[in-house]
Amino acid sequence: MDFSTQLISWYEQNKRDLPWRHTNDPYKIWLSEIILQQTRVQQGLPYYEKFLQNFPTVKDFAEAEIDKILHLWQGLGYYSRARNMHKAANEVMEQWGGKFPENYKDLLTLKGVGKYTAAAIASFAFGEKVATVDGNVYRVLSRVFDIKEDIASGKGQKVFSEVANELISETSPDIFNQALMEMGAIQCVPKSPKCEPCPFVQECLARENDSIGSLPVKLKKVKVTDHYYQYLVIEYKGKLMMKKREGKGIWNGLYDFPLIHHSEKVEELKKEQVKEQTLLELSFPVHYQKSESYKHILSHQRLYIDFYHITLENEIDLSNGQFDYKWYDIDAIKDIGKPIIIENYLSKYIY
């Protein structure tokens, strides 16, 4: 079986027309690859176009304010990707003279660029013969060759990388990589793969051994924990109390409201916890408008969120340095980066 030739032939007849496939600009390829991590093409495409409109070059990206980048990223999740991109863009400008490194090894030195992304840029932009191995590639190779190594293990990842690099086309490594990922994305899909029109239907060992449904093997399961949040949306004369989150959390660098975190569902606000989070001496019972309950699912967390809109009659002085929050008017809030769950609430109840 000439795997590479058959694969590329299939690709030329079945590939989707995507904008990043019409360029060898490493900046545009890098942008698309980072956006498409953990994101479907249909969802990521508008973001790709939006980022290119705002930042046509890596120089523009590096010089942008991180707040603007996070605002444009809003809704994609995994915000560390955006923060790492900003750092990587600055590395390109400061350490590489404004030009992306031109080989796999050097690309790995950029912030947030791992083996897969480095291989994608190296092959798509510079024609380097190095295989890209992502979730789609794991699925195709595990099924065609009935590979049962655990893809979450170091050994398994090494095995798949070796197989992909043995199969990769000598003359068209970029097209081979695109083709292998495309096959996993549109043909050899996780459930109900389209086996009959597959060019490898006769050679597919998983089909022969009836093991398609169990491949690829991933033994390590992510433990998902439940969290219950009460957000305090405190308003005074059209302004809301917010602050920029600091630290290492998933929403680091984004703006949100005072937050009370519980390990189980709580229906009412508790005076002590409100004071602890806001330093406000609110008279109880507090008069508020409670939103619908929101559920937000992350890779390792399930968040159950209620928003409590509290309108103050007297302004609270936030300039004494004892409190991290500030007053923001609605127009300003629209332009700052926020977790998508907060944007959804604001769009429904405030804007």
TrEMBL record:
InterPro entries recorded: A/G_AdeGlyc_MutY, DNA_glycosylase, Endouclease-III_FeS-bd_BS, HhH-GPD_domain, HhH_base_excis_C, HhH_motif, MIG/MutY, MutY_C
One MF annotation (Gene Ontology) recorded for this entry: adenine/guanine mispair binding
PROSITE patterns recorded: ENDONUCLEASE_III_1 (PS00764)
Family affiliation: Belongs to the Nth/MutY family.
Membrane-spanning intervals of the chain: none
A Pfam family the protein falls into: HhH-GPD
Protein name stated in the entry: Adenine DNA glycosylase
Domain HhH-GPD: 35-186
Name of the top EC class for this enzyme: hydrolase
NCBIfam families: mutY
Biological source species: Flammeovirga aprica JL-4
The protein's role, per its UniProt record: Adenine glycosylase active on G-A mispairs. MutY also corrects error-prone DNA synthesis past GO lesions which are due to the oxidatively damaged form of guanine: 7,8-dihydro-8-oxoguanine (8-oxo-dGTP).
Keywords: 4Fe-4S, DNA damage, DNA repair, Glycosidase, Hydrolase, Iron, Iron-sulfur, Metal-binding
